[in-house]
Each structure stands twice: as structure tokens, then as C-alpha cells.
Write a structure and sequence with these properties.
heterodimer; A: 204 residues; alpha+beta; 26% strand; B: 121 residues; alpha/beta; 5-stranded parallel sheet; 5 strands; globular
């Protein structure tokens, strides 16, 4: 059943995303030895058909880590790096001079896959801890694409399930030019679960 | 009565922390949703304790802390944040803080830390 969310519930959702991203920033900082900045998380309710446009807004090549989530909190998580930022991240992870990595070799893709998988798992673990809820991510998949493949997959996954989605976005960045974004998409049908969860947490 | 200021942009998180504080007697609660508002309240009200988030919409919690210390305000400060990066924690510790709690936090741990900060049984 879809229940209307009050402001406090939207705020609750933003806090979920902030906790996920905050914990992820700590892990990314450990992995790179650099300080990681996160933005305030944003919340919107959007139609699934608009998600692919939002994710691939720039139409630039992006590197994406994707997982659909089952368990009590069904949804989709994406970690998106514009290609040039992913290459800069690889320079940092491989301790290369900035600007050295110009294309994604098989080894680089593998490293990026492992790092982004750890970041997504960290994000989800933090949320699990906050909500005391079960989250079961599917096998994580990495894409290096102009957007079409990933957006087709998002469309397919989301359209099957819901008319609108709760869309949460948080950006991570490392100075001067590394950055990525988390997109956490939750089915609107979870509104009752979320409202109940928020109430329980406040009453504990 | 001890005055506690909760600084967090999330109304939900402020409600949650208020709920945890309600288990502690003799505490009155103030709230701020951003850094500038926090500095203003701290300067006027001189709370005994500030529960401070790092990521705020205007100025971050570190700047709030440095600002109030520069103003000579000795309110106790506990950071309550999802940011656990070592350089950030180290910078904050230089300003004499009473604790650094990571979100998601353990209910008992945060209550105990606040009580210890106030030397309450």
C-alpha cells in the first residue's frame, strides 16, 4: 500500500542516504589516503522513466556499479563515476601521476570494480545498521558505457515494480577532480514500511 | 538543568537524538538546523553540551566548532556524524571535544557518553 510521506519521512530517507554516503566516504578516504567530501543528500519522487535521463544526464561515458536490492528494503543502488573522474580515481589508487590513466585496461576495470563494490557494500551495511533491517543486494555489476545499457536495465527493473520511485542522491568528491554519485532508488510501495520504521526508531 | 543543543540539518535525526536525551533527567534541549543558526544559539545561550553534525547545509561542523572556540566559548562538544575520516577526527580533536560518535550510533553508547560528559550516574 502506498502511503503519503510527511516531511519527517522524507527527511528520514535523506538521513538514510547521508549515513550510507558518510560511511562510504570514510572507506574511500582510507583507500585513497585523501579526504573525501560528501554533499547533503537530496530526495525526490520521480517516475522510473526519468531515472535513466537523470543518471546519464551528461551523456558522457560513465562507469557504474549497479545492484538491485531485495530483503525488507527493495530497491536499486548505483554508484556512478563520470569516465574522466574514474580515470583520476585510478591514478590515485594506483599511485600514478595525475592524468596517466587514459583508458580502462582490464586490470584497471577489475580494480575499479573491486573498489566500487566495497563502497556499495559499505553504503548498504551502514543503512542496515541504521534501520536494523535486512538488505540483500544482488550480485554487483559494473558497466562502462555511454549510458544506454545501464539505463535500459534500470528501466526494466523499475518499471516492473512501481509507478514512482523515491530517488536519493549524494555526491562524493576528492579534490581536485575526482567525484562520484550514489543513486539510491526505492520503490514507492515501501512507504508504509518506512513510515513504520521511522516511528519505531523514534519510540525506542 | 543542563542545556543541550542538537545541531543537525535532519529534523528526523534531531527528533531521534531528543528521544535519546529524554532518558536523561534534568536536560533541556535546543535545536539548530544549520551551522550559522548553531553559532548564534551557542553565543546567546551558552549550552552545556553541543551535539554537532559535520555535514551541514551552510558551514560545516568543524567550522562551527572552531568559531565558538575562537569566541572563547567552552561548551562541551560531541560530534554525531557519519563522517569517520581520520584527518577530520584529528582536526576536531584539536579543539577539545568530549566525544566523536559515528552514525549509525548505538543508543546506549550515546546516552552513556552524554551522562559521562555531565558526570551523571
Amino acid at each position: 500500500m502506498v502511503q503519503k510521506l510527511e516531511e519527517v519521512h522524507k527527511d528520514f530517507l535523506k538521513e538514510i542516504a547521508s549515513i550510507g554516503a558518510g560511511n562510504t566516504s570514510t572507506l574511500l578516504s582510507k583507500l585513497t589516503g585523501k579526504e573525501v567530501t560528501t554533499t547533503i543528500s537530496t530526495f525526490e519522487m520521480v517516475s522510473p522513466k526519468n531515472i535513466s535521463t537523470i543518471v546519464s544526464a551528461s551523456k558522457r561515458l560513465v562507469v557504474v556499479q549497479y545492484a538491485s536490492i531485495g530483503g525488507e528494503l527493495g530497491g536499486t543502488i548505483l554508484l556512478v563515476f563520470p569516465r574522466e573522474k574514474a580515470l583520476s580515481l585510478l591514478d590515485l589508487l594506483r599511485k600514478r601521476e595525475p592524468g596517466t590513466t587514459e583508458w580502462l585496461s582490464a586490470e584497471d576495470q577489475d580494480l575499479l570494480k573491486r573498489v566500487s563494490r566495497s563502497l556499495v557494500v559499505c553504503y548498504l551495511n551502514a543503512i542496515q545498521g541504521f534501520l536494523n533491517a535486512r538488505l540483500q543486494p544482488s550480485e554487483l555489476r559494473i558497466f562502462s558505457t555511454f549510458g544506454e545499457t545501464i539505463t535500459d536495465l534500470i528501466d526494466l527493473t523499475l518499471k516492473k515494480r512501481t509507478k514512482r520511485v523515491f530517488y536519493l542522491n549524494t555526491k562524493l568528491s576528492i579534490k581536485p577532480n575526482i567525484g562520484g554519485e550514489f543513486f539510491f532508488l526505492l520503490d514507492e510501495s515501501l512507504s508504509s514500511f518506512l513510515i513504520e520504521k521511522a516511528a519505531k526508531m523514534l519510540a525506542r | 538543568m543542563k542545556k543541550v543543543l542538537i545541531v543537525d540539518d535532519s529534523a528526523f535525526m534531531r527528533m531521534l537524538l531528543k528521544e535519546k536525551l529524554s532518558n536523561i533527567r534534568q536536560v533541556s534541549i535546543l535545536e539548530a538546523a544549520n551551522g550559522k543558526q548553531a553559532i548564534e544559539i551557542i553565543k546567546k545561550q551558552k549550552p552545556d553540551l553541543v551535539l554537532l553534525d559535520i555535514i551541514l547545509p551552510d558551514i560545516n561542523g568543524e567550522i562551527v566548532l572552531s568559531n565558538i572556540r575562537k569566541a572563547g566559548i567552552k561548551s562541551k562538544v560531541i560530534f554525531v556524524t557519519a563522517v569517520g575520516q581520520k584527518p577530520v577526527i584529528e582536526r576536531c580533536r584539536k579543539f577539545d571535544i568530549s566525544g566523536y560518535i559515528l552514525k549509525p550510533f548505538d543508543d546506549t553508547k550515546i546516552t552513556e557518553l552524554i551522562k559521562n560528559t555531565f558526570n551523571m550516574p
